[in-house]
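Hi there, hope your week has been kind to you so far. Thanks so much in advance, here it is:
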Amino acid sequence: MPTRVAAIIAFRGDPALLRWTLEGFSRQELPPDVQLDVHIGADGCDIPPLDDHTPASPAIRFHPHRFDRQGAAAIRNELVQHAPSDILIFGNADARPDSALVATHLRTLSSLPAGSMVLGQAPWEMPAAGATVFDAFLADTPAIFFYNQLQPHQWYDFRHAWTLNLSIRAADFLSSGGFEPLLRPVYYEDLALGFRVLGPTRKGIYFEPAAKVLHRHPTTLDQYLNREELLGLMSPVLAQTLPQVFAAIHGSATLDTLAADFRTWLKLDKPMHQWIYKRLAEWAALPASTLGQGDTRQRTLMTIYQMHIPLKRLAFRLGFLRGLELLDDSHWQKRTPAALWKKHLEL
């Protein structure tokens, strides 16, 4: 019997970007005894035609599925049910794999004990031309993912269960209960999966940078802050749905305590936040070459990173307070960023 590997991709976004990602899967260099099935789940949208994909091997097959709008967690769970397999690889529709991705995940995971996961590398793509300081900020600081703080071939905890490039044995996924579907539309469902598999302290995620995808996700400063707002909005949902996971990430404070603290802090330092935003916006538009090279470049990037943290927290806190109003699952499709931070700063 061949080893069955299923790549799981929830999709709701840019069809051209999805096709770019799937081209990477079509070119996988597989061991002779491996069958790869790529399952794409459309979350209340359409999937572009895949007829022009010519896999490098007959052992590579694509399976498009269209579902009613449910959120990324539920879509991934649905796809797993459609994908009998030994190994699951979770990917994003904007993360194109190197040709050795599947073989590397399979080889690495097979060498690890049951209950382990493998996290692969996912460098943020810099534009081929016209890269800005903000592009470099996203690629080379821990603003979104903190790959630059990881060491190859080391073990990490549930906070590193990033499903843009993550593998797990299907049996371990199923026995954990899978993704929590009430964490929707998106965010925290990946960390919650890691918590279900590993618990709060066990280091069971093995970082293998040779399993690599290229993450193509152009993002502006405003879009980045909207992302932080959505993370804040989803935080009360996490607290209500999976309080143990919330406590492991955010500490033992209750929602009421945090809300009271956040309302107090939001009254402070608006002029400082306005200044930070305007300064960041100036930096963001400059050419990446402005940063210099080597240590100078990294020091400058980390200075910008430290400077932006109060603004990042502002967006999160505003989202959190709005999230308290949208806790009931009947409101889940209203859980979208509204640029509250921008209104707060009177921009």
Remarks:
- The chain has a mean pLDDT of 95.
- The chain has twelve helices and nine strands.
- The beta strands are 3-11, 34-43, 60-67, 87-91, 95-97, 117-121, 155-156, 165-169, 205-215.
- Residues 221-344 form one domain.
